[in-house]
Request: fold
Amino acid sequence: MTTARPPALPTNLPTATLPPPGEEPRPTLADFFRPELDALARSGEATRRMVAQMKESAKTVKIVPATLGDKVYEQVFATVMQQLGKFVAIDLPKDVLAAAWSKYSELQEYLDGEKYPPGVLSKVVLLLEQQIEAKHAPSVQPVIEILGKQIELAKITFPIRMAMKVKGGGVGVKDGKIVHLSVAECLLNAELGCGYGDMFTIPLAKKEAPVLGDRVFRFAEGVPIRPRAGR
Reply:
């Protein structure tokens, strides 16, 4: 008999999505896609599409191990889909917006420790209109058990593309780090897919909606401003 156990969760999920104690939770990409993720988990549609695409790919690509039946892959894909929110829990204010602004040229001067002494908070208004693009590809290595033997399958990857249109904003800088930020307007366009090894990738969700408005996001540990090359 062939049995499968739930695939082990990855150890490389973004840890920045878990704020330190005392820090308010911040919106994540999982929150942005919550209705779509819940619908995918309930319907089983993504699992069926993955299995169907695997059968199609098997006509031209050898699947290892080739002896596993559809039921095993269905169980593996279904288990992973139930955990999908954990894979896309990317911290939007910190891991996308603050990470992009940490390279912004207007913030470079705040690395000058003589002009801006340690412990002094500087508030900076960013009169900008820009598009921030980001890509992520979290993955998991499923493990199944057959007759007491553990077998690793190909990685299941979730390619993510984000485009954030930002109009105006402000940051607080202290000790060369962004410690808080806010935006006037922010529109997020995001796409999420799911791929198995190098064989195929299917689309899962696509959405555009306003995010991050009417809030100040604080970072207890701060996001370091990145010095320009050669500085």
Observations:
- The longest helix spans residues 45-57.
- The longest strand covers residues 177-196.
